[in-house]
């Protein structure tokens, strides 16, 4: 059952990524190198910060740990709310404690995985959605002036989705005892990374 669910999710992700690529291709062809540069910059941006990477992987890990419907609901919710936070940042509207919120997201989500917290879906969604705003805002305010906003946004949303898929794939190991230990250990490492950012060590 778990294997079938994981396979279905990975297949859906691959199909979704393919559809996005097909949809984006005409725009890139007409917009020239500017849009392509914006797409590449947006895709690479979440991958350049360990604080972003660990939190996004943790969303997939926790979703896989909680099982359906959280396994797909949380990874879908995060980039949707993150896009809202990105727009907020691009508009220059104030949001306090952004870096703190990003660091706390890694700490808290890592602890959820480490401790195996089986929260109700609405609580998990509220927590993940709240953190997504900070991540999106951080991306939005750092949007390069030369980048195409739509292409840049699409790039970082796709990268976020792929990081969620990595978390889900690793989280699917929980059906084995050794896998559960590995997943919880991963949650602990994520929490430590978040704590290090919160303390200013990283």
Mean model confidence by pLDDT: 80
Series of secondary-structure elements, N-terminal to C-terminal: HHHHHHHH
Q: Structural class from helices and strands? A: mainly alpha
Shape: globular
For the secondary structure, the number of strands is 0
Radius of gyration: 17 Å
- End-to-end gap: 40 Å
Biggest sheet descriptor:
none
Number of continuous helical runs: 8
Helix content: over 70%
Uncertain segments of ≥5 residues (pLDDT<50)?
Answer: 1-34
How much of the sequence lies in strands comes to under 5%
Write up what this structure looks like.
By secondary structure, this protein is mainly alpha-helical. The protein is built from 8 helices and no strands. It has helices at residues 2-31, 33-44, 50-66, 70-90, 98-114, 121-141, 149-171, 177-198. α3 (50-66) runs antiparallel to α4 (70-90), α5 (98-114) runs antiparallel to α6 and α5 (98-114) runs antiparallel to α8.
Concise description?
This protein has helices at residues 2-31, 33-44, 50-66, 70-90, 98-114, 121-141, 149-171, 177-198. It is mainly α and 202 residues long.
């Amino acid at each position: 059952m778990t294997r079938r669910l994981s396979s279905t999710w990975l297949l859906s992700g691959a199909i979704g990524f393919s559809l996005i690529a097909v949809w984006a291709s005409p725009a890139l062809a007409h917009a020239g190198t500017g849009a392509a540069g914006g797409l590449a910059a947006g895709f690479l941006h979440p991958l350049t910060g360990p604080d972003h990477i660990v939190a996004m992987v943790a969303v997939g890990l926790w979703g896989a740990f909680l099982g359906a419907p959280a396994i797909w609901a949380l990874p879908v919710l995060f980039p949707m709310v993150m896009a809202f936070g990105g727009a907020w940042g691009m508009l220059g509207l104030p949001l306090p404690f952004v870096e703190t919120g990003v660091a706390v997201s890694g700490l808290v989500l890592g602890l959820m995985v480490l401790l195996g917290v089986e929260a109700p879906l609405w609580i998990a969604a509220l927590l993940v959605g709240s953190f997504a705003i900070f991540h999106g805002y951080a991306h939005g305010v750092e949007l390069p002036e030369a980048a195409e906003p739509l292409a840049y946004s699409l790039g970082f949303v796709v990268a976020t989705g792929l990081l969620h898929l990595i978390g889900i794939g690793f989280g699917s190991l929980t059906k084995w005892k050794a896998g559960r230990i590995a997943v919880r250990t991963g949650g602990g490492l994520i929490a430590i990374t978040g704590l290090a950012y919160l303390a200013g060590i990283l």
